[in-house]
User: Fold this.
Amino acid sequence: MSKKDRMSGNEAVAYAIRQINPDVMPAFPITPSTEIPQMVSTYIANGEMDTEFIPVESEHSSMSAAIGAEAAGARSLTATSSAGLALMWEELLLAASNRMPLVLALVNRTLSGPININCDHSDSMGARDTGWIQIYAENNQEAYDNFIQAYPIAEDKRVHLPVMICQDGFITSHAVENILLEEDAAVKEFVGEYNPEEFLLNPGKPIAVGPYSISSYAMEARYNQELAMENSKEVILEVAKKFKEKFGRGFELFEEYRTEDADYIMLIMGSAAGTAKQAVDDLREKGMKVGVLKLRVFRPFPAEEIAMALKNCKAVAIMDRTESYNGHGGPLASEVTAGLYRSKVMIETVCYTYGLAGRDFTVETAYEIFDELKDVAENGKKVKQHRYIGLRSKERS
Amino acid sequence: MNNQGIEIRWHGRGGQGAKSAALLLADVAFKTGAHVQGFPEYGPERMGAPITAYNRISNNEIRVHSNIYFPDLVVVVDETLLAAVDVTAGLKEDGAIIVNTAKKADEIRPLLNGYKGKVYTVDARRISVETLGKYFPNSPMLAAAVAVGKVMDTDLFISEMRASYEHKFAKKPEVIEGNMKALTKTIEELGEVL
Assistant:
């Protein structure tokens, strides 16, 4: 039986970690990280779980220790945010290339500068090409549900890749909202025991982890990593299906909200998707056919699936909560438009940068975007392909 | 609270407990079976800086994740903010504002940029000092928000808050009675003007 409760996104993820009770959690326990390591260490101190918590001196060390523990055969995880993720950059790549199925609870907060602590996706988007699976949440419920699905995805033999479970800093992580929690035993059963096939502390089958790889082999390793990422798509969907059978809440690579007959669609990730859904309901009341495509899985990137989902609309707004500083558009803008082109879906697109460093995204902003899409598609309005929305001065956008 | 629910904006200064009050309100309103949201807006992280916190409470699922620009109720935890922040910005005319002050509502109204809706004052300092022996304005202001916003039945609120304080102050049980008195006294005093 699910239990109705209320808690913050940080509490929800800490609760899931307690239920899963992984073997080892190295973490840098203070800013820029959130309350998650503190909450987990409290559970451990209270005897409610027996994960080995290692307080380390930096995120460079927390990811290194998580890789070491995972290589030894222990189910491992860490948690961080913002500059903490930046400091583990080198190790993020090592975790993926050594095919470590560890999990990172990420609270999306901006990278400096100017110095700021609030929500945007610049931390995880900066790590988008490190070989990690990335799954994003709209609210605390999804952060909890995604975390429970993380190990079954990561540890699947077809995948063997690390998974980053992302939620929006402050907006989700520090907000108290309603949530349905599952029973400990049901969560444990869903996640299952970790039985690694090959690991360092296995005297019967010695292996080396992370040695130098000469040029005649290193490229094959990278190729296999890419194949694993491609394989992970079907595994993510299988795990989601099992999750729905057990707990009743369904997930896909992305959610299509009232898109079936939509003329105008907003493609967006994270907490702002909920705000966009409210705008869709309001505009539908007024007869405007609009919808939201909420991207849940950014890595692997479901390019073709997105193109197929968008093919019947007149125009799409592609929403990036980060900047690529390329004069062209953010990561979603580049990857979605490339996917549309490759699938020969030639609809109008406008790429918006929004919500940087905690700038608020409101229902009214979403109305404005849908109106602009309509203007572009019906009246041929010419707009810059890469626009900013929500600036203090509109003229500059 | 009507069927559309209620949206509340809290103005306080860092360290006064406005954020805690918003989270406590979400917590206690949840007990009525409502959908709740309680969240702070983080500005400069220092004691005394103006901070804002928000509540949405509704019978329907809450999906909007923006700040609140058109609140039904504004709670001002620190009177000095009236000169520093436009606390009535976007506040609905059929809504209300509660200010922590020793002054009467009629004396506060001229400081509210022509706001025409209901104005309530709570002397949280006096109530807090009388009941707790110290100045912690968030319990009186929480009780005022529940009573003025008609967030829930006040008897249920009082009984749920006792359970909440017993959990929160498990290691400091001596402060539970004082906080409970702060809540009931605030509701009694507001009863005269509500």
Summary: Residues 215-247 of chain A form the longest helix (33 residues).
